[in-house]
Amino acid sequence: MSNEPLQARHDSLLKDYQAIQSQGLNLDLTRGKPSTEQLNLSDALDGILQGSYQTRDGTDCRNYGGALGIPEARQFAADYLETRPEQVMVGGNSSLQLMYAYVMNAYYHGVRGAETAWIRERGEGRKIRFLCPSPGYDRHFTVCESLDIEMIPVAMTEAGPDMDEVESLVSSDPLIKGIWCVPKYSNPGGEVYSDEVVERMAKLGRIAGANFRIMWDNAYAAHHLCDQPPRLANLLTLSEQQGTLDNAVVIGSTSKITFAGSGISFLASSEANLKQFASQQTVSTIGPDKVNQLRHVKFLKDMPTLEALMQRHREILEPKFNAVIRELEQGLGDKQVNDQPLGRWTRPEGGYFVLFDTQPGLASRVVELTANAGVKLTPAGATWPYGKDPNNSNIRLAPSFPKVDDITQAMKVFVICVELATLEAALK
Fold first, then answer.
1. Would you say residue 422 lies in a domain?
2. Which residues in 189-202 are b (16+ Cβ under 10 Å) and which e?
3. CA atoms within 13 A on the CB side of 273
4. Which of 168, 180, 342, 358 has its CA 20 to 30 A from that of 293?
């Protein structure tokens, strides 16, 4: 296409964009929060205990103690994570808090006492390092930054992290002490790790340096958007078979199942890991909120009950994801500039995000244009360590919280901004 039709299209879009700016929109697709309608699904949590605070072993949940969680909650979490109750501890409302606490304690206090503290291996110009499959979850990156842990991006494939790259790095550098993973409906790309990837993950402890940990954040294990959800191989089982169970730390929560700010969180690993971590936790707390654990068990009951609840979540979420995909297909699907599509996007089978890729170098400009038109997006680069997307192309779209009509309106603005930014670059 010559510059003349490109310029004409640009000028036409610019008029549309300026008209949108005059509307004073205030729309937000920044974070994967459950909507009010989703939160309403769990309102029965309130008052469900009806004054009965005892667990099946006679523990009064209103009192101190129980660092590993109440028995009923540990059983529920074990069923959810497909393991045994002895390998699970149940915490408070935040899986992120559990992850941060685990990494922080490993860094300063060790995974098996002070002599195993990661910080002891630091030297002049030497930092502890973590592998970060990218694009990935920005809050994982924040944990590393807060502890001055160096982050090493690792390429993502449709099957999960590039395991050739992971194995090469882990086997050659003993200062690499961990890897972040969102193995099912990965944040933000929606990938589900293949059986081969999980099997190779389970073997990493045999080639890694001392005290290596796989931080397996299975945040979206039950968050399906399809009729036949893909299965994820069980890292705990495979690690146990490989003799590497100490290296596996599996995390989950009910944060996007019940109340986002008042759920319960789980951490599963070897019993020795749990014992060590629980002893470290008692420095800062004399036990988690067991009342909340008990009411969650009363409400969620078992896996069939959980699955029925998640189907109701899907009924709310699916039209929102459909609206995103529809607007992308209608607005950008058959358009090209410089013989290249204006963008590529995922069609997730579950989780909370759609990942959009602009042509190289344009993500930050698209985010700027949408912001100036009244649509907030996650900052460009947020899906990469240190906020540095090497191609400046990733944009994470989070449609869970707004209403469908607002998502549709926001996406109409988005597709105009994508085309406008692409034409701007082509005309330079």
1. yes
2. bbbbbbeebbbbbb
3. 23
4. 180
Number of separate helices (H) and strands (E) present in the chain: 13, 15
User: What separation in angstroms does the CA of 11 have from each of 6, 8, 361, 404?
Assistant: 9, 5, 21, 30
Residue-level pLDDT at 2? 65
User: Of the residues 273, 300, 327, which one is the last residue of a structural domain?
Assistant: 300
Q: Is the peptide bond before 348 cis (omega within 30 degrees of 0)?
A: no
Residues 6+ apart with CB under 8 A from 244: 202, 203, 204, 205, 206
∠323-328-332 over CA atoms, to 5°? 155
Q: How far is it, in rounded angstroms, from Cα 375 to Cα 352?
A: 18
Nearest Cα neighbor of 222 from 319, 121, 77 is 77
pLDDT 10s digits, 331-341 = 999 999 999 99
Token couple for 318: 């699916």
> 43 in a domain, yes or no?
no
Q: Which residues of 341-364 are buried (b: 16+ CB within 10 A; e: fewer)?
A: ebbebbebbbbbbbbbbbbeebbb
Q: How far apart are CA 375 and CA 87, in angstroms?
A: 44
Q: Tell me the per-residue pLDDT of 87-112, one tens digit each, with 9 for 90 and over.
A: 999 999 999 999 999 999 999 999 99
* Element housing 336 (H / E): strand 336-337
- Of the candidates 222, 165, 233, the one whose C-alpha atom is nearest the C-alpha of residue 193 is 233
Q: Is 248 exposed, middle or buried (0-12, 13-18, 19+ CB in 10 A)?
A: buried
Last residue of a domain, one of 271, 300, 329: 300
Domain hosting 311: range is: 3-30+307-427
